[in-house]
Amino acid sequence: MKRIYLFFAVCLLPIFLIGCTQQKTTQAEDSISAGLLVTESGLGDDSFSDSAFRGLEQARDELGITFDYREPFDQNYEEQMKELIQQEHDVIIGLGYNALPTVESLASEFPEQAFVLIDAVSEKENVTSITFKEDEGSYLIGLIAGMKTKSGVVGFIGGEEIPVVQRFEEGFKQGVEKANPDAEVLVTYANTFDDDQKGADITKEMVDQGADYVFPAAGFTGVGALKEAEVQNIYAFGVDSDQFFVAEESVVSSMLKNVNVALYDVMEQLTGDQALSGEHITLGVEQNGVGLAPIRLINLTEEQQKTIDQAQNQ
């Protein structure tokens, strides 16, 4: 009798496994999916692309979504994004101002496809644009730099001179001026987000001019600036993500640009059966779109901390 039971159990096991496999496939097919085109710096930038990727990873782990991604190292945005569209994702996400022309073109070519554009604004009805109040977060960084500089000279390093980076610059300069009207702010644009050596070279030049704090908003170029700040024994601020671990003896804080939070919210909306509206969403301190990473390496006085807290609350 035991042999008969064993025979039936063995016979039924493949059927059970097939049933489980079919169920798993159906669940995967039913899940919301996203296609992500990161910046031309690719993953591993310790900044913008990595933040976006983390947001989708969190959505995968907590919401059950699936996603794929492409890295346009050769600036072949359209080719890479078309590959994602052909996979029939529920939403296609383009990162950065440089993705705007491709998103606009393909949004017209594929009017039924939903797109999300980060850091630029499209008027296309099937494109939801998400931008950030970089000036709010950079203002906080500027306050710290203005309050703590000993030389009275600080530096801002931009990637490409485009509106989003100019907002970083403006906020930083306003914060420095508020805290220390006599301080000088050096400004240099690298005209690239992908050259860490250029970031290092600009940092050296600023140190030669007396800068003791630098704030790069320049992608992978900025990573070079942070590492060189450590070599030059000055302080620096990270951007987009908490970049303390890029240069642990130099990075005081980072201006968090929570692309991860924005994309998690997008996927949460889609998994809740809420369609994207094609609107323009702007996220600041109040919406947890921007903020400060923990302040390390330096000590703020009680009055200086109060200044930072008041600025955040305003």
UniProtKB/TrEMBL annotation:
Gene3D superfamilies: 3.40.50.2300. GO terms for cellular component: plasma membrane. Its main location: membrane. PROSITE patterns: PROKAR_LIPOPROTEIN (PS51257). Residues 37-310 form the ABC transporter substrate-binding protein PnrA-like domain. Keywords: Cell membrane, Lipoprotein, Membrane, Signal. It holds the Pfam family Bmp. Residues 1-23 form the signal peptide. It is found in: Cell membrane. It comes from the Bacteria. Transmembrane segments: none annotated. The keyword Acetylation does not apply. The keyword Iron does not apply. It is a lipid-anchor. Belongs to the BMP lipoprotein family. This is BMP family ABC transporter substrate-binding protein. It comes from Halobacillus salinus.
